[in-house]
Amino acid sequence: MNGDGTSWGGLPAVSQTLYPVRNRTHPLPPVDTHMLPYGLGRSYGDSCLNHMGTLLTTDQLDRWISFDPASGVLHCEAGVSLAQILELVVPKGWFLPVTPGTRHVTLGGAIANDVHGKNHHRAGTFGRYVREIELLRSDGSRTQCSRTRNARWLRATIGGLGLTGLITTVKLQLRPIVSRNMEVEEIKMTGLKQFFDLADASDPTHEYTVAWVDCLATGAQLGRGIFFRANHSETPSSLNSDRTRSFSVPMRAPNWLLNPISIQGFNALYRNKLRTDCHLATQDYRPFFYPLDRVENWNRLYGKRGFYQHQCVVPRDGHEGAIQELLERIGRSGQASFLAVLKLFGDHPPEGLLSFPRPGVTLALDFPNRGESTLKLFRELDDVVMQAGGALYPAKDARMSSDHFRQFTPALDTFLPYVDPAFSSSFHRRVLTPS
Ligand SMILES: Cc1cc2nc3c(=O)[nH]c(=O)nc-3n(C[C@H](O)[C@H](O)[C@H](O)COP(=O)(O)OP(=O)(O)OC[C@H]3O[C@@H](n4cnc5c(N)ncnc54)[C@H](O)[C@@H]3O)c2cc1C
Q1: Which residue, among 169, 171, 173, 172, has the nearest Cα to 61 in the 3D structure?
Q2: Could you tell me the CA-to-CA distances from 435 to 12, 431, 432 in Å, in that order?
Q3: b (16+ CB within 10 A) / e for 108-129
């Protein structure tokens, strides 16, 4: 776990002071420093970092307050992680309403980035299920925010990148389940058109959909990969059993380990793991939602130079459009992405003023840091996203320009008055300083 003041991509290096928040009544430090809440550092870039400032670490802000097994409303401190919640509530027949691709994130982090999951087309984002939060500001004030009390503060804090204050406690609405199993279908995709056809056909029938794309494929094979769709099993079964094992990457790998040739090999193996065009399986929820959590510290595979993630959303324009162009440019660049994930977002309006998810298609890519050649490719991808009227995800970003951020964030001026004057982040200063 990297609850230690670093970010998941290992970029950039920063110097900051850690200030542990020991429980929900703990005061904030004096206002002679700029401060930022910190969860488990699962954001990839600098939105969870505060160079030359103070990080309010929340690993000790992890107490349960109450859980109502009849309504599924959980009340706890904001440093509790999604993994801890699942351990408590799955045996009682409840599940997270929305979950990102790792369970090692805190409630505070999930709210501050208004995270999305494979069910966005049905459920929208995490923030939609937040019933109430307590917000602690640098002047010592504590405000209860819900849809009926201080609703504007709730809207600014959902997706608010930790800048409106420290969330100390959260009331979250969970969803019921009768089994910890998922009914999963994996379907070989021959290209981008098939992705859109499958996503459209699956939206009404499957709660969870997502696709892995082989981004080294070009020409007629552009967009080939595997489409995953799933529902919670409706066959009642034990909610307790868990045989999922994980292992850990012990140290940073050499920088050359993930290169186009090794990634090509991985992609071929991964694509060919499906012996038939369509594979049906009943599996535990953990390997379905959190395949990467099985390899603890997998980010170390990228070596000391770290890696960048590029996640965008572009409006759906009726055909493959901008997504095709993004994949073509990546193919031409010869730079390989180890993880390339496509997902159709639903039409839910943004839950928070700065929420990233909006109607359209999202593409997420990881690239080893190869210096200027990686940054040049990213600038090209940014231009495609901008021309398509899309946006980049701040939780995954370590280098978007100030101009781009402003264009991707239509409600920025409405949001800024809610920023706590003593709160700031490396991301915040970078994107709000004109380039
Ligand atoms: C393998 C992997 C898969 C992922 N998959 C997805 C995905 O599918 N969908 C998705 O949306 N994201 C995804 N993410 C990103 C991740 O969900 C977000 O970055 C999340 O916000 C990280 O939470 P954290 O607790 O680690 O917070 P941090 O990364 O430490 O902080 C994130 C933000 O939350 C703020 N914050 C933290 N705690 C508080 C608090 N108590 N009060 C106020 N603000 C606070 C911080 O200031 C910062 O701005 C993934 C990340 C990884 C590593």
Answers
A1: 169
A2: 18, 8, 9
A3: bbbbbbbbbbbbbbbbbbbbbb
How big is the chain, counted in residues?
A: 435
Q: Would you tell me how many other CB atoms lie within 10 Å of the CB of residue 18?
A: 12
Alpha carbon distances (Å) from 322 to 20, 280, 318, 380, 406:
44, 31, 11, 12, 20
Residue having the nearest C-alpha atom to atom 14 of ligand 1: 100
Note whether 202 and 209 are within 8 A (CB): yes
Mean pLDDT for 306-323 is 87
Q: What is the pLDDT of residues 180-198, one digit of tens each?
A: 999 999 999 999 999 999 9
Give me ligand 1 centre to Cα 208, in Å. 20
Q: What is the pLDDT of residue 1?
A: 41
Ligand 1 centroid – CA 60 distance (Å): 17
Helix, coil or strand: residue 218: coil
User: Does residue 167's CB lie within 6 angstroms of at least one atom of ligand 1?
Assistant: yes
What is the Å distance from ligand 1's center to 292 Cα?
15
DSSP 361: E
Atom of ligand 1 nearest to the CA of 61: 41
Q: Please tell me the distance from the alpha carbon of residue 334 to that of residue 363, in angstroms, as a whole number.
A: 18
Indicate if ligand 1 lies below 6 Å from the C-beta of 162: yes
Instruction: Map residue 350 onto helix, strand or coil.
Output: coil
The CATH number, out of the four listed (3.40.50.300, 3.30.70.1060, 3.30.70.2520, 1.10.260.40), of the domain defined by the range 181-400? 3.30.70.2520
Q: What is the pLDDT of residues 43-60, one digit of tens each?
A: 999 999 999 999 999 999
Tokens for 29, please give them: 């430090």
Task: Tell me how crowded residue 376 is: count the other CB atoms within 10 A of its CB.
Answer: 13
CA distance 428 to 358: 21
Domain-wise residue ranges, the chain: 181-400
**Residue 3 pLDDT greater than 60, yes or no:** no
Residue recorded with tokens 């594979």: 279
Determine the average pLDDT of the residues in 10-24: 91
Ligand 1: residue of 76, 115, 295, 308 to mutate (most ligand atoms within 8 A of CB) is 115
pTM: 0.94
